[in-house]
Amino acid sequence: SNSLNIREVTYTGEHSSREKDYSSPAIVRDASKCILCGRCVGACGTVQTVGAIGFAKRGFDTVISTAFGRPLAESTCVNCGQCIMACPVGALTEHENIRDVWDAIADPDQYVVVQTAPAVRVALGEEFGLPVGTRTTGKMAAALRRLGFNKVFDTVFGADLTIMEEGTELLSRLSSGQNLPLMTSCCPGWVKFMEHNFPDMLDNLSTCKSPHEMEGAMVKSYFAGKLGIDPQKITVVSIMPCTAKKFEGAREELSNKDMQDVDWVLTTRELAAMIKEAGIDFVNLKDEEFDNPLGVGSGAGTIFGATGGVSEAALRTVFELVSGQPLDTIEYTAVRGMDGIKENTVELPDGRTIRTAVVHGLGNARRLMEAMQRGEKSYDFMEVMACAGGCITGGGQPILNAADSS
Ligand code: SF4
């Protein structure tokens, strides 16, 4: 149990012969705990249309498994973690990295930098009995310092960089007319979904790294130079609402000179477990500020955690780059007959228009992609988040029971 901080219990009675599946860097499956309720199958197959896990056999020997019983890492899993949120018995969990982070903090040769995503601060309090939605930014920064991190950064800075880069990329694609619509690449669940399901449209994805990857890369270049620290001696830890970010952090492409931009990703749940393990009285901590040696976040990046946030921030950037004027309001309208999909059109001062779609939930994304392939829809810019509602409901967030959410 995470709340009791017990990770390993030696049990001498009868053991299940089923091995845990540790193949994925994001999600662990423990089939011996599975009660065959099928909620993960519904979340993965019906809602997300990923179909990485399903029922096998369907007789008395029914099991929940990937196709051909292959390890999860060899399936079409996109690591969104919605199966974890659906599982009532803990047979699916994140691939825990708490021990790795404790080891880095304890290593005197390592300078350990932590960054936290916007959606973590509004959910962390739930693990400590605070009302749902309580903002715990100041307490979280204080707790991270007490855990022993050398610097505590806000991923909002990386989000601001992503917005500038993505806005500029959109302008250049609008000018060339190539690889439109530009599709956001900040959700690693969506990127992997594209790789499995729409490989002929990978060039439409933005070439920008996601915010925490940009920030990690910058910490190991600009920040390392500024402090005169060998980047090999810096460990970057990201606290994310997301299990897919663990997979993203381990991707070979997101590294430089054999160094990953981000070394470890912990979920909101894992951070709460560390705080409890350290015996920190989280609720009574005095608020502290983030460290801020890299500049000040614009605030636009804060809305990254909610669906529609990325596109709004990028459109504002494009509008200002073209006109030198701020953009007033952006009105989105729901697409008829398609839940979870909104669209809008922004007119630039030079007469060009940008048609945008905002989609959350992979089932909705698949429906929109198929409508585009049939020629029924076309856009210049698409923001896609794998989780319904965006990162706020990510697969690494606190799991509420019915009493908590009432
Ligand atoms: Fe992760 Fe957010 Fe994408 Fe969900 S929507 S997979 S939490 S980045």
Automatic annotation (TrEMBL):
Shown part of the complete sequence: 113 to 518 of 578
Organism for this UniProt entry: Paenibacillus typhae
- Record carries keyword Coiled coil: no
- What protein am I looking at? NAD(P)-dependent iron-only hydrogenase catalytic subunit
| Residue span(s) of domain 4Fe-4S ferredoxin-type | 25-55, 69-97
Task: Could you list this entry's UniProt keywords, alphabetically sorted.
Answer: 4Fe-4S, Iron, Iron-sulfur, Metal-binding, Repeat
One Gene Ontology molecular-function label:
ferredoxin hydrogenase activity
